[in-house]
Amino acid sequence: MTGPWFPARHSTALPRPASVPWLYGGPRPAPAPAGDRPAAVLFDRDGTLVRDVPYNGDPARVEPMPRARQAVDAVRARGIPVGVVSNQSGVARGLLTRHEVEAVRLRVEHLLGPFDVWAVCPHGPDDGCACRKPAPGLVTAACARLGVAVEDTVVIGDIGADMAAARSAGARGVLVPTPVTLPGEVEAADETAGDLLAAVRLVLASGPGPVRGAALRAGASPGGATGLSTTTGLSGAMGPSETTGPNGTTGPNGTTGPTGTTGPTGTTGPSTTPGPSGTAGFGGTGGRGEAGGSGAAGSGLDRFRPAGGETR
After folding, report:
1. Among 108, 161, 196, 275, which is 20 to 30 Å from 179 by CA?
2. Is 0.90 topped by the overall pTM?
3. What number is the average pLDDT over the span 287-302?
């Protein structure tokens, strides 16, 4: 079958070395270096840009995550290259063909707009490749294709493997938790955001450089009281969140950011604000550099995650 989402089949290609990802798009002229913006933003695919359908090869089942198009468009509007870095071990497992992976890629671009680069790992966890996240190969390959510095690049994803790939490559990582994100992955993340658009606003407001977890947690007292976080308001303005004293009393909220717009308050501890699906969310919590968002993420494992924590 051929059509908008199904590219014409070609003759079988020679097997690729285990360490080589599939690359699509790029290179494109890199914008002039700027200290107040990243050189590129790379997104995980499943669970970040689109809903995670296990080993999906059907373009009709592609569904964008909430506010995903707004988020990617906000990056494009700044002239910043956007890319996708995605593990697709279904190929190695015999559950997907390259043709199907490409069909889903075209559908994602139809829904979310074109991406400047795609780096896809088709290997399994036992193949010994250097590209399968949490290894850094997808991030470094995408940056090389775009001609940008890894250290000026941001990776946004929903699980710990995305953050580990960013960290090992030398890029900045921002975690957007979903119901499959493990609590330990949230705790280990340098930065988190309530949803994809909040993550992008955090990145665009704070520049390209990694903000490491130790600095983000410096405002927390031993008793768990939260200090000043890097909460991003829904207007995109950056301002301090509300603070909580040692006895649990709450200080002033609605602090006005630099642009004069008022961001949402930053509630303390794991939030129980219901997200769009009614699940308990992490979004809007303060003191760990977390960006206020829709609060859609929860800690329950009510979405697909194979045994052993390996996914995609």
Report:
1. 108
2. no
3. 36
Distance CA 67, CA 112 (A): 10
- Give the Cα separation of 295 and 282 in Å (integer): 6
The domain spans of the chain are 22-218
The side-by-side arrangement of strands in the sheet containing 82-87 is: 22-25, 117-121, 82-87, 40-43, 153-157, 172-175, 192-193, 290-291
Mind giving me the DSSP string for 139-152?
A: HHHHHHHHT--GGG
pLDDT of residue 206: 79
The pLDDT, as a whole number, for residue 311 is 52
The β-bridge partners of 242 are none
Q: Say whether pLDDT at 280 is over 50.
A: no
Q: Is the peptide bond before 27 cis (omega within 30 degrees of 0)?
A: yes
Domain 22-218 maps to which CATH number in 3.40.50.300, 3.30.460.80, 3.30.390.10, 3.40.50.1000? 3.40.50.1000
Band (138; pLDDT cuts 50, 70, 90)? very high
Are 6 and 176 contacting, i.e. CB atoms less than 8 angstroms apart? no
Average pLDDT on 198-227 reads 55
Is 46 marked active-site?
A: yes
Tokens (6 digits) for 77 = 């509007």
* DSSP-assigned beta bridge partners for residue 156: 43, 174
Q: Which of 44, 52, 116, 195 is catalytic?
A: 44
* Burial of 33: CB neighbours in 10 Å, binned 0-12, 13-18, 19+: exposed
Which pLDDT value is given to residue 299? Answer: 33
pLDDT of residue 221: 30
C-alpha span between 10 and 86 (Å, rounded): 23
CA distances from residue 144 to 28, 138, 200, 251, 296 in whole angstroms, order as listed: 11, 10, 22, 46, 33
User: How many angstroms separate the CA atoms of 145 and 136, rounded?
Assistant: 14
